[in-house]
Amino acid sequence: MKEERLQNWDKKEELDCLLFFALRIRELVFDYTLDTFKYPALNSTASCKEAIELINEIESNIISVKSLEPIVAELQWKIRQDYVVKKMVGEDIQYYLNFGDIANHKEIKLKLQLLYNKISPNKYCLVTEDLLEKIIAENKEKKTISKLAATYVSSLINLGFSQSYIYITTNNHFFSTTSINNLDSLRNFFSCFTRVQETYTVILRCSNLFLELSKSSFAFRSEISNTITDDISKLDKHGFTRTKQKNESFFIANEIKALDPVSAKTEAERRINKLSKLFVFYHHKKHPTWLSKALVINNKSKNTFLLDNRVSPMSKGRDLEPQKAAIELNKLIRGLELDSESFAKYDRAIDLHGLSIENKYIENQLLQNWIAFETLLVGYSSKSKIDQVLDHLVPFLKYKYIER
User: Fold this and answer.
1) Which helix (H) or strand (E) covers residue 200, if one does?
2) What is the CA angle 322-316-29, rounded to 5?
3) By the 8 A CB rule, do 93 and 48 touch?
4) Residue 301: how many CB atoms within 10 A of its CB?
5) pLDDT tens for each residue of 226-278
6) What is the mean pLDDT of residues 59-77?
7) Which of 143, 171, 181, 402 is packed most tightly, with the most Cβ within 10 A?
8) Per-residue confidence (pLDDT) for residue 128, from 0 to 100
9) Are strands 248-258 and 198-207 parallel, antiparallel or unpaired?
10) Minimal CA–CA distance to 27: which of 170, 152, 132?
């Protein structure tokens, strides 16, 4: 990091591990961090909950018991590595991890429910914060701090905090004009994640076509108007509502409960997207549109935030330059020799990948890519779908990893 970015830090040796923690948190949630340096998608608590939900689906005959094997194996591995869970559960941890025959899923479910109660998300976060405070105060064990920071970020995101909000908060707290001269700043940082939902109002600027839908917007706890109330106008210190164009209206999403303003904006976009999709279902020629920027108002504190779109996950990966992409495409077309059935599958997978690139929403991107995998893998193995995807995907993830 450039020296000027650390001008707000006192050059004290006792702050060494605090600085390491701050840099590690920022690295974990930075959009373009190499994947293996980022936070895990699920921590032990979330994996435990996932396994319980999977057993519920098995009991409802939605999926086969075979699908439980990789989930349980991952959970056992994850908990054995988890410093926080070991502190919370102690020597009893082996009892909870001894699942026996996978077919006896009811007994496994009971053990997992007991374990989940002991390591519930809020408890897990509190213990992680206490451990981090203690270890950072001792100013040593950076390897442990790194692991705890990763599981802490994973815990916050699984609770409902936005990755973007964590990144913004980390920058504002540790790398802005605020002076960092003692360890009190760590506790102040933790206080930014209270895990208490606030109520927000989110204003989006949208095309006037949405005015036709104003009578339907109440179903989405929203309203559509050509004007804004004086109360909102006074709170808008950013001038967002005052720069509305003639061809624009306001989509006002009310009473959004969220842990942070970025998550509130995401919920507002989900509402307007749902309304837009329903409109397009009945009318195909014109599509309602809206700006990526939004004004977010905390209804209690009256704090306002002007937020723009986060980076799409499909835009974060390694990409080829246009000229090199063209060369690779020519190679592929010249060297591709498939029978008609295989080519049809390959062609369909390419189409699905293209749809995921075009889509703005993470859930839809993930769904399209997953269907693409299943299209290519169907009928080739008796293994579970997860195992099939892993068998074929991991070699590609490893390919040229060191070079990256």
Assistant:
1) strand 198-207
2) 155
3) no
4) 8
5) 999 999 999 999 999 999 999 999 999 999 999 999 999 999 999 998 888 88
6) 86
7) 171
8) 96
9) antiparallel
10) 170
